Amino acid sequence: MTRDSRPPAGPDSESTSASPDAIDVSRRTFLKGAGITIAAVGVSGSQAIASSPPAGTAETAVLGPGPMSIGLTLNGKTTQLEAEPSHTLLDTLRNNAGLTGAKRVCDRGSCGACTVIVDGLAVNSCSMLAIDVMGKTVTTVEGLATGDKLTPLQEAFVDCDALQCGFCTPGMVVACTALLEKNPTPTRDDVRKGLAGNICRCGTYQNIFEAVEKATKGKKGARRANF
Questions:
Q1: Are 88 and 157 in a shared domain?
Q2: Based on the domain organization, do 136 and 148 belong to the same domain?
Q3: Is the residue at 48 inside a domain?
């Protein structure tokens, strides 16, 4: 037998190597099968989207774009306000409820002039949507006093002359009120932290700190700031 001669394949023998044509066919078969699978997934996905319930049905709650009714407790009273879903709480309070105590200053949640209390938490109303207070309790600076009777904190602000231009004062009073509701006897550092989000451009911080201390300790007479 020569070196290149091979024994004839028997009838029961199997070839252990595949020809290039066989490999090419198997690759084409794989790619065709993969393409069919991807197409099937795409069709089933589009059918799922097409079969999803349209907007506005009972399974989908659609808000806006027009005004909607927002029910909340505002300064101790059950209230219904009309506002578009895109309107901020600040805009709604000032324009729809006539409560202008919260001031628009920075309009980006960095100065605290628009501070209100929502469920016991001091928040910047310019950075909160009106629809987010649906069913909640909101207190503005107008809701602190009882008629003409000021709260001890408000009286202390007057006695300590804790304001100059007064534009930041409503937010300061509201923020301090929220602080005292959580901590009735805060330290000077507690007051600083509680007012960290409120800016007084006139620099009346010393008098504000003294007003809070006067309201909490019940001191008689105002202590003047030392500059």
A1: no
A2: no
A3: no
Q: What is the pLDDT of residues 113-126, one digit of tens each?
A: 999 999 999 999 99
At CA 205, angle to CA 204 and CA 211, rounded to 5?
A: 95
Q: Tell me which long-range contacts 217-225 makes (C-beta under 8 A, separation of at least 24).
A: 217/185, 218/152, 221/159, 222/156, 222/159, 222/160, 222/161, 223/160
- Name the band, by pLDDT with cuts 50, 70 and 90, for residue 18: low
Q: How many CB atoms lie within 10 A of CB 172?
A: 27
Any domain includes 53: no
- The tens digit of pLDDT for each residue in 85-104 reads 999 999 999 999 999 999 99
Query: From the DSSP assignment, how many helices (H) and strands (E) are in the chain?
Result: 6, 5
> What is the pTM for the complete model shown?
0.69
Contacts of 183 (CB under 8 A, 6+ apart): 190, 194
CA–CA dist 130, 117 (Å, integer): 13
Strand residues in 58-178 grouped as ranges (E): 68-74, 77-83, 115-118, 121-124, 137-139
